[in-house]
Amino acid sequence: MGAKHPYQTLDDQDDLDDVLAPGSGAAAIFVGSLLVEPGREPPAQGAAAVPFSALATEFKDSSVRFFAIEPVASPELVEALQVRTLPTVLLCLDGAIIDAIVGRFEVERVAKRIRWLTERTPSPLGLFARLFGARRVGGWVT
Questions:
Q1: pLDDT tens digits for 113-139?
Q2: What is this structure's pTM?
Q3: What fold characterizes domain 8-141?
């Protein structure tokens, strides 16, 4: 898995199996073009990678993990997930795909669904945060 962005790139079936393993928590998987050549207009689905990256940054302290699949580099993963339209965002919880946002990437629509997903997962700070009002500041719990 690559890690140059606020999301991780899924490159092979083992990576996907880890994300979709039972008990693996919440995940958002972007399936669409991540490549934009310098000096060229991005393809429609490539343009969606930019707001997905912004959403991954916005929700970095949430319990949702963010992943992306480049269809040209990993067509077998696209086929395994039965994705037929690009871009697609899959929302997963404990190994099951529970929602799919297909087609046009509308930032607020995707953000709303991610907020919905965060409500169904425990806080990364857990019980301690709920009892004592702790919060995450950078990498530290205060």
A1: 999 998 887 655 444 444 555 444 444
A2: 0.77
A3: Glutaredoxin (3.40.30)
